[in-house]
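Regression test case RT-17, inverse folding.

Input:
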């Protein structure tokens, strides 16, 4: 038995080819843009995760009077939440509030003098060291400089 032969009854015109070429070009452009945006967001996230202090954030100036002895002061350092602890002894210390486990925001408990991560019950001491839970590393310390009546946190 012979295979049936299929004959095309329509011919593709030059106009059709031009239309198809334009559609293909638009689809390629949209696809390329989607891929570029996806890769861009992946690299931005990676940079934020790997760069100390969430990237090259400028130093933050905090008046010393805003942080009396024994107090804490939370602020935004670039794109990350951060805190200064002005302990009774020693100079103020600053930390990123991003948990080193999966980057949830940790909370400072001044009474217990420890940080708590509510996502997976991670605990850190007042020096940012891991006390318990899944965090694999201490909280990131930020550079602190006391100049006169001001504290400068972060910066290069
Ligand atoms: S994100 Fe903090 S313990 Fe998991």
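Golden output:
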């Amino acid at each position: 038995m012979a295979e049936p032969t299929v004959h095309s009854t329509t011919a593709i015109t030059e106009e059709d080819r031009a239309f198809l070429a334009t559609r293909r070009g638009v689809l390629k452009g949209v696809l390329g843009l989607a891929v570029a945006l996806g890769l861009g967001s992946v690299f931005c996230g990676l940079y934020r995760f790997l760069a100390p202090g969430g990237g090259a954030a400028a130093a933050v100036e905090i008046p010393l009077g805003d942080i009396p002895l024994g107090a804490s002061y939370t602020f935004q350092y670039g794109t990350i939440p951060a805190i200064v602890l002005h302990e009774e002894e020693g100079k103020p210390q600053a930390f990123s509030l991003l948990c080193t486990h999966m980057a949830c925001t940790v909370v400072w408990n001044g009474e217990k003098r420890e940080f708590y991560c509510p996502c997976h019950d991670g605990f850190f001491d007042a020096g940012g060291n891991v006390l318990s839970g899944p965090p694999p590393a201490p909280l990131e310390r930020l550079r602190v400089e006391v100049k006169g009546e001001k504290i400068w946190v972060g910066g290069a």
